[in-house]
Specification:
Layout (H helix, E strand, L loop, with lengths): L5 H25 L6 H30 L6 H25 L4 H10 L1 H18 L3 H7 L1 H7 L1 H16 L5 H29 L1
This protein binds protoporphyrin IX containing FE.
The site of protoporphyrin IX containing FE has 23 residues, from helix 2, helix 3, helix 5 and helix 8.
């Protein structure tokens, strides 16, 4: 198969992935953030975080189905971009939503299930981001792979967070739930297939 040079593709996709952040920053500067700017920023950054998290999970199925092994080099980049948007999302919540009021934030984390799950998801993504370096991969050895399986829990957490925060229309979180089920289902099917093939 003729595949695009992965280094160029990765740089082009990274630049494209940061366009929404630049546009949000520009809109904030120009005062174009709708009538409810904080809610708009919170929703946009949450949306981009989930989009890139799911994109990172789509890489392995693409690799398996196409045999294009180099595509794996996009996985970490998508994961880190997801973390970037999630971190901005959480910083907005700390600052513009909660005004650094630690007591209110703690109460929200304990009493509002969608925030509890959002925080859990964010902590997992933080652990994955700080252990994404070559040094950490070397140091952790086999444990690195075990730890990084937590990305599945984080993705489920992100969808549950979205599902629980919507008040009426569950269309969008349901769409993410379907996509995530397909991506995780693919992995289970692949494992089952590998086991069956090795037995026969
Ligand atoms: C401490 C962690 C987190 C907090 C406190 C938090 C808080 C919030 C809040 C306040 C909203 C807006 C709710 C509303 O419109 O009433 C929101 C929306 C959202 N968050 Fe989070 N969040 C957290 C982590 C995450 C993470 C890690 C992800 C994804 C990886 C995420 C994805 C989303 C999505 C997709 C939305 C909905 C956007 C939309 O309606 O278009 N959040 N979050």
């Amino acid at each position: 198969m003729n595949t695009p040079p992965i280094g160029i593709l990765r740089r082009a996709l990274l630049a494209a992935a940061l366009v929404p952040a630049v546009m949000l920053a520009y809109d904030a500067y120009a005062g174009n953030l709708t009538a409810n700017p904080v809610e708009y920023l919170e929703n946009e950054t949450g949306d981009w975080a989930i989009i890139f998290l799911i994109a990172s999970l789509a890489i392995t199925p693409i690799r398996r189905l196409t045999g294009w092994n180099e595509v794996i080099r996009l996985r970490k980049m998508f994961g880190l971009v997801a973390y970037f948007y999630a971190a901005v999302h959480v910083v907005i919540w700390f600052t513009l939503v909660s005004f650094f009021d630690v007591a209110t934030m703690a109460e929200d984390i304990v009493k509002r299930p969608f925030i509890t799950v959002g925080m859990g998801t964010f902590l997992i993504l933080t652990a994955l981001a700080v252990t994404s370096t070559t040094g950490a991969i070397r140091r952790l050895g086999r444990r690195w792979q075990q730890l990084h399986r937590a990305v599945y829990v984080a993705a489920i957490g992100a969808v549950v967070h979205f599902w629980w925060l919507v008040k009426a229309d569950i269309t969008r979180p349901r769409q993410w739930a379907v996509v995530l089920t397909l991506l995780l289902g693919f992995r289970l099917w692949w494992m089952w297939r590998a086991r069956t093939l090795s037995r026969s």
